[in-house]
Amino acid sequence: MNAGVDPVALDALDRRLLDEFQSGFPLSPRPYAAIAEALGTDEATVIERVRRLKEAGCISRIGAVLPAGRFGASTLAAMAVPSERLEEVAALVGAFPEVNHNYEREHRFNLWFVVAAASRSRIDAVLREINERTGLPVLDLPLCKAFHIDLGFRLEWTSPTKTAAS
Amino acid sequence: MDLSDEDRRLLAALEAGLEAVPRPYAALGRRAGLSEEETIARLKRLVADGVVRRLGIVVRHHELGYGANAMVVWDVPDELLEEAGVRLAALSFVTLCYSRPRRLPEWRYNLFTMIHGRDREVVRAAVEEAARAAALTDIAREVLFSRRRFKQEGARYFPTEAAA
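YS: structure for the whole thing
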């Protein structure tokens, strides 16, 4: 994983930016100016902060989150990969543009990834190809029902004087 | 609700994210073949109609100090699944809550939740709290901590000609 940024290295402006604009991003011609006004700073500063937080990997992207299962097709897939083959198989899996999350997890099923595409037939083709090229079975766990509505993630900031995270 | 070709082009162009430039909707519109004004108007409607659940910053937990993340899976009797799902989803520290099919005999779990925390102890305590809150303390579960992240990006449901 990337080294990341120590959360205490983010200042109050970074934190408010990350906390307050996970939804309701301004839909006006100059959204960063609107954010700047809300945060009491100027547009150039906000743009610079966004660029920096993107480079640091804190911001994945600024974009639209669509309801799970509303468009196209997706599935969660899992494989039990012999440990000596894990990097090779993870690289093969990750090379598919349809694969967007790909994690090693501590379990007999140690490789977990999400496959998303315009159609279920494309998902089937990707899973079949992964199976054929690795010789390993792939567990296909498509979404049945989403109980959670993604409204963003409430960040609980730690600081040097306040260490309790929960 | 069916999406127009313009909406699909717009959502496809947006999958790469909004740029950090003064007029990002003008830049997005150029990629989708739409004016800035039309881009903003269409996005407003897509948000209002619920086609877009939220428009905004998508954070990466790990980089923000959430060093531990676990996929917690539960083997919930079918008749209890709905209530358990609703209860788990209501917890602030549960970031995803989905039901998925069992694949017996390899895989018995049908309810999936994602829990992020500063460290593993925080996550383990949250799992216990979740089990109590959803009346699942006697239900079989496993906690799958992530070890390495090989890839994390947004889903691409609207392939552009170049990507397809």
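YS: worth flagging: Chain A touches chain B through 87 residues (CB under 8 Å).
IM: good catch. Also The beta strands of chain A are 59-65, 73-79, 99-105, 111-117, 139-142, 145-146.
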